[in-house]
Automatic annotation (TrEMBL):
Keyword Membrane attributed: yes
Region of interest: Disordered: 478-498
UniProt protein name: MMPL family protein
Coiled-coil region: 159-226
SUPFAM superfamilies associated with the record: Multidrug efflux transporter AcrB transmembrane domain
InterPro entries, per database record: Acrflvin-R, MMPL_dom, Mycobact_MmpL, SSD
Transmembrane annotation, as ranges: 305-328, 335-355, 361-382, 409-429, 435-461, 508-527, 669-688, 695-721, 733-752, 784-804, 810-829
Low complexity biased stretches: 478-493
Superkingdom of this protein's organism: Bacteria
Length: 878
């Protein structure tokens, strides 16, 4: 590999303008792709297959009207007093105007809703009074009906008796006719007709009276049905009113109100222009003394990846480069290479955001890593090239040799980072897969830039890569013609080895080991109380409108309003609407009876009536332990709730999502660690041809990792040094930070392991005694590794105060992790342990030594085959 890279470096130097033109073309193409194909980034996270995501998908399918994104506008007054009528009217008009916007499905008028809630008890009391009066009327009507039927009964009996007499007379007439007494029969019939004529009016009166009584009974029966229906409606209204207890849209003090704006699309799909339109319409509607704050769903703008804090980090890195390299040209080259790398890597990532759902942290992490490794990787090659020039090596030969040696180390170091990042795809979590692949691709671009563009630029710069003072110290005005110059010369080698840190460590190795392990161990203690969660409004900057909206809601309406749970109810089939509604309200009452629940309000039902949704508002915020306990309790008691109410329940919402995300990541962690550490151990085994060196490297990584976790917990979860780091609301740590930190830090830790220990390996391979090789190898690479680590820490530290608050703990964890790993582990613990182990640290079974390929990471074969004649330098190199 060293020989191949050597040839690549010389080709880049010889055809430098071809390589530079090719990279310019790539950057133009990427820029065009970003302009044409980039999409919207998001701060929402989902993991397919989790219960909360399945419930959310079901809800969006069965209740599409409730599927749109929801934002909140919080209103207050300048004087902190109650709202005036003018202000109330302005808010009402704003709700109507927002509802007319194409991107908005609806906007609530908080004062109207609060009035309905406030009027509900009085309306229920009025309904009870009306029902009580109706019950009295029904009782009186029944009594009157019974009296009327009692009065009618004697007349009916008399009429029946008269009809019985007529029937008897009719029978006598028939008998007389049969006996031949026609005259008598005719007389009887005449009497019958006369009597029947007398009875007809009486019969008609009785029938009319009975019809009136039947109508009265029907009316009474209808009234009784209406009364029973009214009783049922009243009970439902009572349950509905009870379910809304604790819910307010205007604070009890009357000094705050909030409007909910539901969009037609999900928040990830809502265009930036539409979010801005909502803000502009609101600002225009604010009359005198009325203020508005917006939830992060409305004001979230993640289009800007770079802020002032990140620029400061780059400035510090630039200062380190100038101090180390001595010229602006030399210092600017690694920075330029990093810019090219992140331009292509991050630009390519953003260009794919139109086709791939992408979280905002994906390009930010790629930017962070691309800058850090882009500077470091080019710096290693530039530093080697400068050392070789000072030793008298021809320019073209030096460029090729630097690419074949330090470039080889860059390649393998980059591979460890790429493996660690690409392995984030293994858990099959979509946003984590995109994040890992974006970071891995950007690091890969940084490696390719370092191996191709850096040699080309070195050829263009020529001897100006070194200052005149450096040439003067070397006793020459340009490169000497010493074709057999040492390939291992380094400015650090001129330092007194007896006073180097490597000598200090190896002079008292046990003290160094115990002190380093004790330091990292103590720092790791807080990690035992690590809690994970997802970002909410409390993590926004203290001076942001999103944070003010979040805190105002919590203060005026209770913390739970900021993180409600969504309970989806599957109602049994075959029930009428009223009975089904009663079951749902019964479930609401059961939910309100649970600990840590403020309210449980039904807010939607599917068209087929089988699925309904309730908003359960907990007592505390979404990150509170009591809220997490409530989610666990609801899921554990789902069967009991179904048995008591006949309704199946499932839970989603932000608190449920963060629990499921954390559990899923925890389940994926062992597989991820096995892949990352396993593949990296194999790679280190190939590079160092040792069993113990990779194991020491991994053990050291675990120590620095634990210390980093501990510091993150202490600052971002416990709130230590909160004023320094801008942590105004300590809380759970970002749920996917552990996996990101493990992957990135392991890859970067192996970078420094590669650059430091490869020098030790080279010294040992060239015949130096094992313990002496530790010191000489350390001195060989310590200066450049120190500068590289400071640069990387500076870049990461710039993100600690990023405008994207979600990135801050990641930047801190990476900055501290690199600082501890580079200076405590790689430059203290590893040399001390290797000194104690002596020659045995390089032990490798013979059978394995025969099997392993020789990757020649330090280019020893290149040194053995060094050309004896000076190579011609590129035209214009001077």
């Amino acid at each position: 590999m060293a020989s191949l890279l050597y040839k690549l470096g010389k080709l880049a130097a010889r055809r430098r303008w071809w390589f530079i033109s090719a990279w310019l073309a790539v950057m133009v193409a990427v820029g065009g792709s970003v302009a044409a194909f980039s999409g919207t980034l998001s701060n929402t996270f989902s993991i397919p297959g989790t219960e909360s995501q399945q419930v959310l998908d079901e809800l969006q399918e069965s209740l599409p009207d409730a599927a749109g994104g929801l934002g909140t506008i919080v209103f207050t007054t300048d004087d902190g007093g109650e709202f005036s009528q003018e202000q109330r009217a302005a808010v009402a008009q704003l709700a109507a105007d927002l509802g007319e916007h194409d991107a908005v499905k609806s906007a609530t008028d908080p004062f109207e809703l609060q009035a309905q809630l406030d009027d509900a008890p009085e309306l229920i009391a009025g309904g009870e009074a009306e029902l009580e009066a109706a019950a009295g009327q029904l009782e009186q009507g029944q009594a009157e009906l019974d009296a009327g039927r009692a009065q009618l009964e004697p007349g009916k009996l008399q009429l029946q008796a008269a009809e019985d007499q007529l029937a008897a007379a009719k029978a006598q007439a028939a008998q007389a006719e049969a006996a031949g007494q026609s005259a008598m029969a005719a007389q009887i019939r005449a009497q019958l007709e006369a009597q029947r004529a007398q009875l007809e009016p009486q019969k008609a009166q009785l029938e009319a009276a009975e019809a009136q009584l039947d109508e009265a009974e029907r009316q009474l029966r209808d009234g009784r049905d209406d009364y029973e229906s009214g009783v049922a409606d009243l009970e439902a209204a009572k349950l509905q009113q009870q379910s809304s207890e604790g819910v307010r849209f205007v604070s009890a003090a009357g000094d705050a109100a909030f409007m909910q704006v539901q969009f037609e699309k999900t928040m990830m799909e809502v265009a930036k222009e539409d979010r801005e339109a909502v803000q502009q319409m609101t600002e225009a509607a604010l009359v005198g003394g009325l203020n508005a704050e917006y939830s992060k769903d409305i004001v979230e703008d993640i289009s800007q990846l770079f802020g002032a804090a990140e620029i400061i980090g780059i400035a510090v890195a630039a200062a380190v480069l100038v101090i180390m390299l001595g010229t602006l040209i030399a210092a600017g080259l690694p920075l330029l290479m990093a810019v090219v790398g992140v331009g292509v890597g991050v630009g390519g990532t953003i260009a794919l955001s139109g086709a791939v759902e992408m979280s905002s942290i994906s390009p930010v992490l790629a930017l962070m890593l691309g800058l850090a490794v882009g500077i470091d990787y080019s710096l290693f090659i530039v530093n080697r090239h400068r050392s070789q020039l000072l030793a008298g090596m021809p320019l073209a030969e030096s460029i090729g040799r630097a690419t074949g040696t330090s470039g080889n180390a860059v390649l393998f170091a980059g591979l460890t980072v790429i493996i660690a990042l690409a392995a984030l795809a293994v858990p099959a979590i979509p946003f984590l897969t995109v994040l890992g692949l974006a970071g891995a691709a950007t690091v890969a671009v940084a490696v390719v830039v370092a191996l191709t563009l850096t040699p080309a630029m070195l050829a263009v710069i020529g001897k100006r890569i070194l200052s005149k003072r450096a040439w003067a110290r070397a006793g020459r005005s340009g490169p000497a013609a010493a074709g057999t110059a040492s390939t291992t010369a380094d400015p650090a080698s001129v330092n007194d080895p007896k006073r180097s840190w490597g000598r200090v460590v190896t002079r008292s190795p046990w003290l160094a080991l115990l002190a380093g392990v004790a330091l990292l161990g103590v720092m790791a203690v807080p990690a035992t109380e690590l809690r994970l969660g997802l970002p909410d409004g409390s993590s926004e900057p203290a001076d942001s409108t999103a944070y003010r909206a979040y805190t105002q809601l919590g203060e005026s309406f209770g913390e739970g309003i900021n993180g409600p749970l969504i309970v989806v109810a599957d109602r049994p089939g075959g029930l009428e609407g009223t009975e089904a509604d009663e079951r749902l309200l019964e479930l609401s009452r059961e939910l309100r009876a649970l600990d840590h629940v403020t309210a449980a309000v039904p807010f939607g039902t599917s068209e087929d009536g089988r699925t309904a949704a309730l908003q359960v508002i907990p007592e505390e915020g979404p990150a509170a332990e009591s809220t997490e306990d409530l989610v666990h309790h609801l899921r554990a008691e789902a069967e009991a709730l179904e048995a008591s109410t006949g309704v199946g329940v499932s839970v989603t919402g932000q608190p449920a999502m963060q629990i499921d995300v954390s559990d899923k990541l925890a389940d994926a962690m062992p597989v991820y660690l096995a892949i990352v550490i396993g593949l990296s151990l194999i790679l280190l085994l190939l590079v160092f041809r040792s069993i113990l060196v990779p194991l020491l490297a991994t053990a050291g990584f675990l120590l620095s990792l634990g210390a980093s976790f501990g510091a993150v917990v202490a600052i971002y979860q416990w709130g230590w040094l909160d004023s320094i780091f801008g942590v105004h609301d300590p809380g759970p740590i970002l749920s996917f930070l552990p996996m990101i930190l493990i992957g990135v830090l392991f890859g970067l830790a192996m970078d420094y392991q590669m650059f430091l220990v490869s020098g030790m390996r080279e010294s040992y391979a060239h015949g130096e005694e094992a313990r002496a090789a530790v010191v000489s190898g350390f001195n060989h690479g310590a200066k450049v590794v120190t500068a590289a680590a400071i640069i990387m820490v500076s870049v990461f530290a710039g993100f600690i105060f990023s405008h994207l608050t979600m990135v801050r703990p990641i930047g801190f964890a990476l900055a501290l992790g690199v600082l501890l790993d580079a200076f405590v582990v790689r430059m203290t613990l590893i040399p001390a342990a290797m000194h104690l182990l002596g020659k045995s640290v390089w032990w490798l079974p013979r059978w394995l030594e025969k099997v392993l390929p020789d990757v020649d990471v330090e280019g020893a074969k290149l040194a053995a085959a060094a050309p004896q004649e000076r190579e011609p330098e590129p035209v214009g190199a001077r």
